[in-house]
Amino acid sequence: MLVTLKELLVDAKEKKYAVGSFNTPNLETASAVIAAAEELNVPVIIAHAEVHNDLISLNVMGPIMVQLAKQAKVPACVHLDHGSSFDACVKAMHLGFTSVMYDASAKSFEENVNETKEIVKIAHSLGVSVEAELGHIFTSSIGGGEGRGPLGAEDFNSLDDAYTNPDLAKEFVERTQVDALAIAFGTTHGVYLTKPELDLNRITEVKNKIDIPFVMHGGSGLSEAEFKEAINNGITKINYFTYMTMAGGKSVVDFVQDMKEKNETVFFHDIALVAEAGIKENVKEALRVFSNR
Fold first, then answer.
1. Exposed e or buried b for every residue in 211-241, given b needs 16+ CB within 10 A?
2. Which of the listed CATH numbers 3.40.50.720, 3.90.550.10, 3.90.1310.10, 3.20.20.70 matches domain 5-290?
3. Which pLDDT band, with edges at 50, 70 and 90, does 137 fall under?
4. Cα–Cα distance for residue pair 75/37, rounded to 1 Å
5. Residue 105 carries which DSSP code?
6. How many CB atoms are located within 10 Å of the residue 254 CB?
7. Please, which pLDDT band fits residue 138 given cuts at 50, 70 and 90?
8. DSSP state of 54
9. Taking residues 171-192, what's their average pLDDT?
10. For the chain, how big is the Rg over CA atoms in Å?
């Protein structure tokens, strides 16, 4: 059942759980994520990251994602992740996406506000939800996936400069009217190289200023307890990709090694299905944590 991001996150906010958002750059990954959510009977978000256009174009993958969401037995949102241009966001809306993230977090505060505000006007007129980002999510040198290169604490004068400022968050939300805000509190995109230095209280500080659904980007390296504390403090959407796609890769490696030992032929279609199964099991584990199952 295709729904908007706003619909999903209002319920998650009220009931104190988080909805998992998973980048799905191919059919097998999208099918695995939907199947995992259906088995657990929890809502889910399938997303296309703009930087994944080099893997598969939005024009090709978008309609597939929308169709899978419509057929899903659980509420499913189709989301554009880290859209960096008006064109990408508008294209996603025209393809039937029910949510877009416009990411101008690397720009000045005023540019972020003004550009996001324009996207919100367009999206809301079409019944589409909008997520934005304020602050800086750290990015690993391995699998960061945002196209900006590595970004760590050493790139700032202090961690406080990287984390979301509660007062600015309030102003940003009031001026843009976004439906959800991705906030920075020390999480990392990609394969974490050092243990993330989290400021989980920052979520509460932002929530005390503006009480809307908050999004966690970069959950790499977090423990189950840290995920649950973040959810308890106000996180209602968690983006998850790196470790799920690594799980699919490991399943393929194990399968190929086993087939070689048996001196049997490896077919590509079998590899795709093996990867799908591995991804599904990893996504189920993540969804259990996020949904408090």
1. ebbbbbbbbbbbeeeebbbbbebbbbbbbbb
2. 3.20.20.70
3. low
4. 9
5. T
6. 12
7. low
8. G
9. 85
10. 18
At 66-115, the pLDDT tens digits run 999 999 999 999 999 999 999 999 999 999 999 999 999 889 999 999 99
- Residue 87's contacts (CB-CB under 8 Å, 6 or more residues apart) are none
Strand partners, 237: 19, 215
**Residue 144 corresponds to which tokens in the numbers above?**
């960061």
Q: Which residues are catalytic?
A: 81
For residue 211, give both structure tokens: 């009480």
Cβ–Cβ under 8 Å, residues 286 and 244: yes
For the chain, the domains span 5-290
Distance CA 38, CA 242 (A): 21
Angle at 163 between CA 160 and CA 164, to 5 degrees: 120
pLDDT over 90 at 157, yes or no:
no
Distance, in Å, from the CA atom of 183 to the CA atom of 261, rounded to the nearest integer, reads 48
Contacts of 54 by beta carbon, 8 Å cutoff, 6+ apart? none
Q: Which of 142-146, 188-192, 200-204 has the lowest mean pLDDT?
A: 142-146
Name 79's bridge partners: 47, 99
21-52 pLDDT, tens digit per residue, is 999 999 999 999 999 999 999 999 999 999 99
Helix axes 27-40, 58-71, angle to 10 degrees: 20
Instruction: Kindly give the pairing relationship between strand 235-240 and strand 188-189.
Output: unpaired
Q: Which of 123, 118, 70, 75 is nearest to 100 (CA)?
A: 123
Rounded Cα distance between 271 and 250, Å, is 11
What token pair was written down for 190?
């990609």
CA distance 18 to 9: 8
| Contact by Cβ (8 Å): 232, 216 | no
